[in-house]
């Protein structure tokens, strides 16, 4: 078990609780009887992946700030000997004013790294979720 260090650029877990089954009803279908719920702060609907797909023209300053924030978040993990192991545009959330961002104005936005499901200790062999985004040293030789 590894705890994610506190950083404004890493999504923090606020609470964990078990959701018990809903009462039986024809309109409600649930595969599981108990659901584990993870609670985080509300960030929004944009990821770096969605920004890339929409082909927004981002100013250099925004790109630099986002990269710096991402590097700061990763540095926080590395200081505790932790490796994220699933860094990709889908796991980088964009936080900011929704109306401004929908217009393509990201001047007041920040990035937050999320999805710590593959978090592991440095020096251990973790799972690689997406080969396209994996660091070469994390891949098994063919």
Automatic annotation (TrEMBL):
PROSITE patterns: PROTEIN_KINASE_DOM (PS50011), PROTEIN_KINASE_ST (PS00108). GO terms for molecular function: ATP binding; protein serine/threonine kinase activity. GO terms for cellular component: nucleus. It comes from the Eukaryota. InterPro entries: Kinase-like_dom_sf, Prot_kinase_dom, Ser/Thr_kinase_AS. GO terms for biological process: mitotic DNA damage checkpoint signaling. It holds the Pfam family Pkinase. Residues 1-142 form the Protein kinase domain. PANTHER family: OVARIAN-SPECIFIC SERINE/THREONINE-PROTEIN KINASE LOK-RELATED, SERINE_THREONINE-PROTEIN KINASE CHK2. This is Protein kinase domain-containing protein.
């Amino acid at each position: 078990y590894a705890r994610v260090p506190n950083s404004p650029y890493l999504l923090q877990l606020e609470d964990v609780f078990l959701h018990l089954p809903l009462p039986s009803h024809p309109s409600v279908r649930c595969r599981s009887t108990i659901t584990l719920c993870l609670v985080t702060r509300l960030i929004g609907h944009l990821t770096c992946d969605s920004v890339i797909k929409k082909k927004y023209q981002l100013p250099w300053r925004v790109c630099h700030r986002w990269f710096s924030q991402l590097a700061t978040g990763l540095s926080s993990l590395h200081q505790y000997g932790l490796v994220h192991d699933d860094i990709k545009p889908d796991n980088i959330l964009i936080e900011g004013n929704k109306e401004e961002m929908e217009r393509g104005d990201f001047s007041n936005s920040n990035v937050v790294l999320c999805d710590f499901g593959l978090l592991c200790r440095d020096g251990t062999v973790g799972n690689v979720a997406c080969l396209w985004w994996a660091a070469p040293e994390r891949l098994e030789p063919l």
